[in-house]
Structure to design on (258 residues):
């Protein structure tokens, strides 16, 4: 199977930043973390959710880690003038002392981690007593991610599309099971409907083909193949007469107490 790597940080930010921020706002409203907390963002990517933490949660400390060096470089540039510590680290072997953080969060990454139970156990280990573990994933199990239209179009045209890692673990029931198995108390999940508006199809298309494994497939297509794919992707969306449209994705938030 084609490896899922997010090594085009700029492209990934163009694709996912505003989606992640919108879902992150819903998570923070629901989870209601306390102010002046010590935060760890596990799998920070380009730093969209980390940025939201800094802007809205009044943290006393923020540390963000990711396994992909290109994403960490991008995030470091983003936070160059702010007190956010960003580094490369393994989510299944967090390089921190136990009980180091009040809130340990994970945005749009949990299903991509090869050993999800180990990751959640590590998140619980580094959380303080009564610390909050929280995060969100796209509902890949229900085919409600922002990349679904492009993936579906590729399938309709007969292309072999790599399965999204851990897709079955993104349902609310699977997430609750994972939280409980990690020993977290008060495991809870919630669905967040995330609507994004686009002025025209090209705005959506350009963001979709940047920064994701599915987008890399498009880059390998010939001119006519790409035009056919654009037409098929367009058919998956409900465009208005002037070409504008909204796409509704769904994220699943999760949280538990260490």
């Amino acid at each position: 199977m084609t490896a899922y790597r997010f090594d085009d940080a700029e492209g990934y930010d163009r694709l996912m930043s505003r989606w992640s921020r919108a879902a992150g706002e819903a998570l923070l409203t629901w989870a209601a973390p306390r102010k002046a907390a010590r935060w760890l963002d596990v799998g920070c990517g380009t730093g969209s959710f980390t940025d939201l933490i800094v802007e809205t949660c009044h943290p006393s400390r923020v540390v963000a880690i990711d396994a992909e060096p290109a994403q960490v470089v991008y995030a470091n540039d983003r936070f160059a003038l702010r007190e956010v510590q960003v580094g490369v680290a393994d989510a299944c072997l967090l390089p921190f002392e136990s009980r180091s953080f009040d809130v340990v969060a994970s945005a749009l990454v949990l299903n991509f981690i090869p050993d999800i139970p180990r990751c959640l156990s590590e998140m619980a280990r580094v959380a303080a007593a009564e610390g909050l573990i929280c995060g969100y994933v796209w509902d890949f199990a229900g085919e409600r991610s922002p990349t679904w239209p492009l993936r579906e179009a590729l399938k309709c045209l007969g292309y072999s599309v790599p399965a999204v890692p851990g897709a079955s673990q993104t349902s609310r029931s699977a997430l609750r099971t994972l939280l409980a198995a990690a020993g977290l108390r008060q495991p809870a999940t919630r669905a967040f409907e995330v609507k994004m508006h686009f002025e025209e199809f090209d705005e959506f298309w350009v963001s979709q083909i940047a920064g994701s494994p599915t987008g890399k497939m498009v880059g390998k297509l010939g001119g006519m193949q790409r035009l056919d794919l654009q037409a098929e992707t367009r058919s998956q969306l409900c465009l208005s007469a002037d070409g504008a449209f909204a796409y509704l994705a769904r994220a699943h938030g999760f949280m538990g107490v260490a």
In short: The CA atoms of residues 114 and 166 lie 8 Å apart. The domain at 9-257 is CATH 3.40.50.150 (Rossmann fold). The mean pLDDT is 94. The two ends are 35 Å apart (CA to CA).
